[in-house]
Amino acid sequence: MKTITIDGQLRTEFGKKATRQVRSQGNVPAVIYGGAKEVNFSAPAAAFKPLVYTPNFQIAEVKVGGDTYRCILKDLQFDKVTDELIHLDLLELVEDKKVIAAIPLKFTGTAKGVRAGGRFVSKIKSVKVKALPKHLTEVIEVPIDNLDINENIRIEDIKTQEMDILNSPRIPVASVEMTRQLKQEEAAAGKK
Length: 192
Prior knowledge:
- By secondary structure, the chain is α+β, with helices and mostly antiparallel strands.
- Helices cover 17% and strands 43% of the residues.
- It has helices at 16-24, 45-52, 112-115, 180-191; strands at residues 3-10, 27-33, 39-44, 59-64, 67-78, 85-92, 99-108, 119-122, 126-131, 140-143, 152-154, 164-165, 172-177.
- Strand 2 and strand 3 (39-44) form a beta hairpin.
């Protein structure tokens, strides 16, 4: 799994004034929680870019005050006006403690319905899972070879090892829809 390294500085002062000063220096305040202690730190905004601006699931290795923390991105806040990153929440990965994470889906294969003239439609890009950190994966592969026209793959059809999917089991993940051209061909065949 891809890991991003972030070097940060511990924060000693808190409050609006201190936070404003951190941001004026081009840094973003952040917090790591879920482990033995909560760690408040700041790091340059550019250091967070590979973690924030990507659809991939990644682990952040944060080096602060001589310690290294393995974390996942839990929450982030952007400025309403400038759209700049203003705060990050990271969840520390503890080996024997299950975490909840959003893992992207990767559709593999070519659906039968697409070969027959249908159009593949992805309805969900990621699912929420609960698992131990060692069982987290970069993507969850969903085979779509047997998907026919007007059929769906639902959350309950996704098979994962060692991970519990928390989304509702009846939610459609992907489908193959009939194209306008195929509908017209069927209507023309029915008139003859």
